[in-house]
Amino acid sequence: MRLAIFSCILLFCVCSDISGQTFALYRTGTLYDSFENPSQTAFVTDSSRRYAFNFFIPTLSATYGVSGPGVPTVKKALYTGKYDVRDLSETEKKLSRVTLSENTYLLAFKAFYSVRYHRELGFSWQVRTDGYGVTSNPALIIFQDYNRVINDELNNTDFNNNLFNTHIYAQSYHQFSMTYREQYNKTFAYGLKLSYLSGIAYSKLKVNSSNIQFDPGLDDYSLYLDGDLRTNVYYDDMGRKMLIPGIKNPGLSLSLSTDHKLKQGWNIMANVKDLGFIRWSKNSYIFRDKDYKIKASAVDDSLWKDIKKQLKNKSYITPVNSKAEILVNKDLGDFDSNLILSKNLFYKGGDIAWVNSYQYKSLHFSATADYNLNRFFQAGAQVMIKSPNVEFFLGSDQIFKTAETKTALVNSDGTGGKGNMGASVYLGFSMKFGRLMSRWQNDTYIPGINIKTSENTGFFKKLFGKRSEY
Length: 470
Known about the structure:
By secondary structure, the chain is an alpha+beta fold. It has helices at about 1-15, 30-35, 70-80, 135-155, 300-310, 400-410, 460-465; strands spanning about 50-55, 60-65, 95-115, 120-135, 165-185, 190-215, 220-230, 250-260, 265-280, 285-295, 310-315, 315-320, 325-330, 335-345, 350-360, 365-370, 375-385, 390-395, 420-435.
């Protein structure tokens, strides 16, 4: 039972949607946008104050998606708490895919360093999770009703090899970053983001080949698996200490971003995001074996003990979910349109998104159409209140599926909705403070004059008291 519960959690809950990119926030001039796309500015010269801060109010982004024949089973497990595989066909060849992601800025601070060349310097602390899962129907069925799979195989003269092939990974880490942005000239800007990473958790299960062998005399069977298992935490090692950042699982990443203005209102932005790695500590686990054998009589809690005996402690390096992106923008005044291409560099997944935005005074409305390369479509919407010194936004990359999920959770309905399932939400807030940053010809601040008398008290005045003016 513990094996079934852990497998379901790992497959359907731990993974995080790689597709959650909050594309509607690209080129919005928000503090969040300036950290995710370092070439983008968070300030408006002559209008913004010098410092931007989220005041420790987290900027949250979380989303997930499920596609394939396993959707009904996931719906029941998520909405009703029951794991039910009766609707799954053991002969189905199509695979189920799960994607999900989380990106939370706990701290985001940026300074308008210089009006000349529009230089900006920022610091942030965020927590990220990325993951992906793909598996077959028999792999889902066997945890609850393995006799269905066995009987189906016995009724066929040719056994179906690779019946339980599975690929699941999930990675979570802290990211401490410094960003720098500069307007090189009137048409070209660039930015970079250098980050220190502190790993929280990593799990990867990859079954490359699998088959079943039967022993009619003993009325028993054995499951043979050839694959790779890596994790920095076993199921009984979990604890709060995992969440504390440190140097146990260190890593580095680098983001590079450029923004180029073309003629007739066209703009092109290009990014290479989070190109980096994490080195997991020597206390991490690794298991690599050819034809690992699991007998039918061992499919119970004792299987966990058997697996743990064969795990070896070893350090290893994993890449983070780096991306290559390009954005083409057409500025039409109050109306704005972005076409975005985003591709994961080391893991499966990517997006083709079209974002249309409309601005009315301080209100911004956006609609997003996004095709995820993990084979599902997303429609999103966003509302934002934004001035040069205050911003608040709320949105979803999967607005219709999120509404379905909310209704199903409230009603504990495991059959609601059609097609793929998913949910997404993001929100954020920031405010600017300090003196107004203006060009010298527009500046109302003159050093030595725009200072209160109480702030201009010198050493000798403190020593001898007030002196007469002349």
